[in-house]
Automatic annotation (TrEMBL):
Taxonomy, superkingdom: Bacteria
Protein name: Elongation factor G
Taxonomic classification: Bacteria, Bacillati, Bacillota, Bacilli, Bacillales
Keywords: Elongation factor, Protein biosynthesis
GO molecular function: translation elongation factor activity
Organism field: Paenibacillus polymyxa (Bacillus polymyxa)
Entry keyword annotation includes Protein biosynthesis: yes
Amino acid sequence: MNESTKKYNFDNMIRYLNDQMELLPNLESKYMGLTMPFPQQTALRNRIIESIEALIKYDQDVCIAVHLNQADDRSIEYKKIILIGNDYLHLKRIIDFMERQHIKLNIKDTCILYREYTADLNIHLKGNHSRITSLNDLFAGVEIHIDHIQAGMGYKYENKQVDEGIIHYCCHKDDEEGKELGYQLFIKSLDYFSKKLLAEGFVLGYPAVDSKIKIMKASCTMCFYRDYYYISGAHISLKNAMLKADWQICEPLMQIHMTCNKLYFEGNSFFREVENIYIFEDKEDCKLSFKSRLSTIIEILEEMYDHKKDVLDFHMKLDSFVPIEDDTQLKEKFKVIYNFDKWKDELNDQEVNSAVPPV
């Protein structure tokens, strides 16, 4: 491969990775979603997807996800579409927009955006990937460290490996330009796939947000320069390293501040089940502060926000994440749809394949 071709392919690959990076979902501070059944009729499905595309253009803070089942033959059955917002009031604005699109959503169909979490914070996780062919061999490896960051911050990447000599060629060892381009492409691929894998999750597909991946060591060896080898080497070695962590499902723990009528407070059974509730004022109106699992308070959020007679003020924000309770049953897989055009093509292919009679 001559130098001009090599630089041309390199520029295209970097452009591709930048474009893919832009598609990754912004999951910062998001913890709730609205669910709707996945439409089985093609006409209805197309109309709903058009409305969702209009919603995304109108409100770029919205994320789209699905609940699905996957059979042994890898075929996918979509169960629900999920419209993810920043908070409860954001979901109500989504409902208003979709109603103008003649799509009816119900605020009672609110769901929790769970998070995947690992306690493996003080160990280095190693992953490797090799590919041996008659034309070229690939050996890639990474050593990573996983950290938690403040709740609501999304996912981060940090490269602690700064040695550009991590690229090696068995043949053409004097290809200095190839090593320089290969280093930049490999590091860019590690950045992209660190965030992509965190966004896609490892257990049921829930995002591992509020995590930082640190690249402690990395290396890539092949016979001679192949740009797509750097991308696949970064992807698979990172995935193999991350899969060695003990991932768990967690739910949001919310910090609540509110003011309510004292009689309402004393007569509401919900407050009797809340631990560590702090009462600032105990007069005719009570000022309260407490923490609650989102699964505990989600059923009464409509009352808290709309019951103005007794609830005078209500503020809720994400505090942290806690492991789900033992009796919580999660079976369906979760997937964030961040490449909407690709998903539409997949649905169209499914429609075509289902219309073809078996041989």
